[in-house]
Design brief:
Elements: E1 8-10, E2 14-16, H1 21-26, E3 35-39, E4 45-49, E5 59-63, H2 70-83, E6 87-91, H3 97-110, E7 114-119, E8 123-128, H4 137-161, H5 167-192, H6 208-235, H7 240-266, H8 269-297, H9 302-330
Parallel strand pairs: 5-6
Antiparallel strand pairs: 1-2, 3-4, 6-8, 7-8
Protein name: Phosphate uptake regulator PhoU
Pfam family, one: PhoU
Organism: Thermofilum adornatum
Length: about 325
Amino acid sequence: NKIVRRVQLTGGSTFIVSIPKEWAEKMNIDKGSLVVLSLESDGSIRLFPSTKRPEPLASTEIRVKKGMSQGSVLREIMSKYLTGYKTIRVVFPSEDLEFKKAIRDIITRKLIGVEILHEDSREMVLQILVNVEDLPISSILMKMLDVSLSMLSDVRLALENNEKILPSDISSRDDIIDKLYLYGLRQLHTGLRGIISLEEIGLQRPHEVLHYAMVLKNLERIGDHSVSIALSIVELKDKKGIAKDLVALSDKTAQFVKAALSAFMSRDKDAANKLLDVDAVEIKSFENEIFRKLSQEHPEEVSTIRSIIGSYRRILEYGTDILETTIDIQNE
């Protein structure tokens, strides 16, 4: 609700604005209480009690109705997790072992810090034990990139040494990226609600939340395409004849996304523009060149080669998105 107040001048130099009585009573503010004024970059001011923050979302309940799919229930759980609830109680209309197994699986693979506090035939209580301030958003971004680059490094070794890649190993690392992505979104949401300060998760201004959410998504998609490349490598029948060019492309792409995230973290707009104007153009040209070459030399592998190079192209594009976000965040 918007409330209009007239600015008053006292003592010849001090501006005074009264605060609504209803809000003061709700926040237990009395004469002599301290409040904090946060001066925002857009010219606005945020006002909150110095010792009080919005209460964390303690608990919520999901009642599973007959006919609800496993997917819909799992999406509800994920949504509650992202919103910031500490306890999620899932109530089933009847005993359903398969449903519970699916929930346990998604918790294990996709969510950080979630434990099953209680379980019986009709309900399951999930407790989120992790505190969002334990891992700042910058560390989450770096860990997501590290996992993706480790997959690309394994692809490189598999190509150079004609080794096999274990799909199960790749899948487990994709789950790590998904966990970090969802955990990062939970952090951003909690910071927006004021449950913790933006500074505690490594941000400075509210508008940065949108930019960090975009970078989180870009890194999550880079992880997906790293998985796609690794799985496609398994299908190659003649790695030796293809290895040299794909290794070169892998190295160029990995260095590009690493430099892109570095530019974002350091707010280096000049580096971002250079990467966009020079490096990205060169890598795209190299992609086209090796696709033409390899598709002519290995026509029987053209479908797999197209898939691999296409995924490298998508990784490059997500890197350029990160660079454009770097420029945007600096211009606000």
